[in-house]
Amino acid sequence: MSDAYRPHEALVHPARPTASLVRLVLGAIMLAALFLSLIFAASALLNIVAPATSWDSTLGDLETGETPAGVLANLYLFGFIIVALAMTGRAIHGRALPSFVGDLRLARLHFARVCLYMVGLHLALSILLPATPGLTPEANIDATRWLTFLPLALPALLIQTGAEELVFRGYLQSQLAARFANPRIWIIVPSLLFGLLHYDPVINGDANWLIVGWATLFGIAAADLTARTGTIGAALGLHFVNNFFAILVAAPAGSFDGLALYTYPFTLDDRDALWLWAPLDLMLLLVSWLTARLALRV
Fold it and tell me: How far apart are alpha carbons 216 and 226 in whole angstroms?
């Protein structure tokens, strides 16, 4: 392990007693099964409490997030992943949920500092970068209404990004690192899986693999930050601020835009627009990763 990644041992050490690939595969299967079971149970309970027709119109399409309630429900559902991981960690690996976070005090510090620097970066770029023809966002929902939903949206966003970081960086990365010394394995494999999580040809259309590729690169950046700091706090800060601006500030039209203050004049399946946007997005990802490292001096 390189000196830069030495702090990663804080996350890897609790994984060493159960570092076998068999346990990891069993853990992944149990995690998925528990999550789906919890979703099914919640859906069944909701149908008992109220007829489907009464909440379908309120939530809209959960997957596309076409309404504020639909976006919130989608994000809060990620809480079931955290519950499933807590149960899986105990049953398969003998690990408590905090062991997938790292030192909690450090994680909170890393998260706060990266969030602060990232918000500053986004605000600076919004002022300094010129408007790009065809990509300028347009007003979507009323600012007062947006502020009303914000107290519910921020914890929902923290749950969603926290669940993904716990699973991909906290769990999969640490368990693989306990089994394999080569960072290429425990950085790239979880990042590829994270990228494939965004595979959705129905919504993304011809731009599907472009989105998967970007998510994979984001996963690599988050994995690197986790290894350099020994907690998921920095990766969570990067992820949280990224999704805050991508979901709550400006989202592609018709794609999870129910709570977006603005929308871009293109959809996720508009390959030409996304290819035009891709260089800016990749530049932002690179600068964001460097900004997070600068924030923590790692």
Answer: 15
